[in-house]
Amino acid sequence: MPSDLRHDWRHDELLALFVLPLPELLFRAASVHRANFDPAQVQVSTLLSVKTGGCPEDCAYCPQAQRYATGVDAQKLMATEDVVARARQAKAAGASRFCMGAAWRSPKPRDIPKVAAMIAEVKALGLETCATLGMLSGEQAVALREAGLDYYNHNLDTAPDYYDSVIHTRQYQDRLDTLAHVRDAGLKTCCGGIVGMGESRAQRVGLLLALATLPAHPDSVPINRLVQVAGTPLHGTAALDPFEFVRMIAVARIAMPRSMVRLSAGREAMSDELQALCFLAGANSIFYGEKLLTTGNPDTARDQALFKRLGLQPMAVAVEADGHDRAGTVHAAITGPADGCAGRCGQAA
Questions:
Q1: pLDDT at residue 47 in the model
Q2: Fewer Cβ in 10 A, N or C end of the chain?
Q3: Residue 225 has what pLDDT?
Q4: Per 3-state DSSP, what percentage of the chain is helix, strand, and coil (rounded to 5)?
Q5: CA-closest candidate to residue 28, choices 282, 263, 272, 264
């Protein structure tokens, strides 16, 4: 199977992959994976929630939305010195990239200098930096890049034709506009979505189509399996078939062959066997640590034991001239005051 990047995928093409017998789909995905990555290496990442809770949006999955009673209390933006202290701890533990997430609809003008100061000081430690702060203007994206930001996360969440069933306070085009601002500013992108929110298979394919037909494939594609939080509208949604999740990983790998495909939120409830199938399907990135902003995650000992059983190794950084991570970044296990999606909600980035 060719490994050239395509941006002209059609819905019927991706759906045809999705419905293949699972052994055939896994074979095709694994072949694409091997053509672009070492299948025995996995990128290990984490997030620090620098501002938790109190978000004004109505994302139906999110425990950080202030309109839902989820037990997540709003907290102010962390002080720069506290963030830098966490970054030092991460570096001492072997981290190469430090990710900062804030539960905002979008940063206010007064927020950008504060976050920029965090980025600059973390960058001065010799760490790669990434952030997820909500919607950005072009000027804000440039300011963050000039402060030393390397990566920005902003998820599409779901297919365009299912989006209004989940979110009403932000339009799909708003998300596309932020991604365009991020790309135009010269930042690398991290963009994926959440499955298991009641969407159909065709809509899961629609999410992958939206991602794979962006002007540039995201450098990282986080696939979140809905973590149901009491108090959110999606609590009580029928659980997604685990094999359907594996299919999602496999088709993402085929459609975006050079992107890091990340197992994000929902891993805590996944068996080792399910995670192993996802690695076979082409996943080559995970979040590491006991929390993803506000929701649980397998503890580090369990992940280390799983890697040992499967013969997997964490990746080291090696960024190619085209800007894509051809190997990943090893991160330490750190959390913020209360960890969560795209750095901003209860799902992961």
A1: 78
A2: N
A3: 93
A4: 35, 15, 50
A5: 282
* Cβ proximity of 63 and 72 under 8 Å: yes
The pLDDT assigned to 222 comes to 92
Are the C-beta atoms of residues 89 and 334 closer than 8 Å to each other?
yes
Question: Which residues fall within 8 angstroms of residue 74, CB to CB, at 6 or more apart?
Answer: 52, 53, 54, 66, 103
Coil, strand, or helix at residue 146?
helix
Write down the pLDDT at residue 235.
93
Write the pLDDT tens digit of every residue in 141-178: 999 999 999 999 999 999 999 999 999 999 999 999 99
Catalytic residues: 55, 59, 62, 99, 130, 190, 262
Single out the residue of 266, 269, 271, 199 nearest to residue 227, CA to CA: 266
Element (H, E) at 118: helix 111-124
Q: Which residue carries 């701890």 as its tokens?
A: 89
Contact call for residues 144 and 116 (beta carbons, < 8 A): yes
Strands (E), the chain: 41-45, 48-51, 97-102, 128-132, 151-153, 188-190, 193-195, 220-225, 260-263, 285-287, 291-292, 295-296, 313-314, 318-319, 325-327
How far apart, in whole angstroms, are the C-alpha atoms of residue 32 and residue 254?
A: 6
Residues of the chain with pLDDT under 70: 1-3, 93-96, 288-299, 316-349
Quick one: pLDDT at residue 346? 47
pLDDT given for residue 339 in this prediction = 33
Residues 6+ apart with CB under 8 A from 135: 105, 106, 154, 170, 174, 175, 177, 178
Residue type (1 letter), 35: A
Q: What whole-number distance in Å separates Cα of residue 15 and Cα of residue 232? A: 30
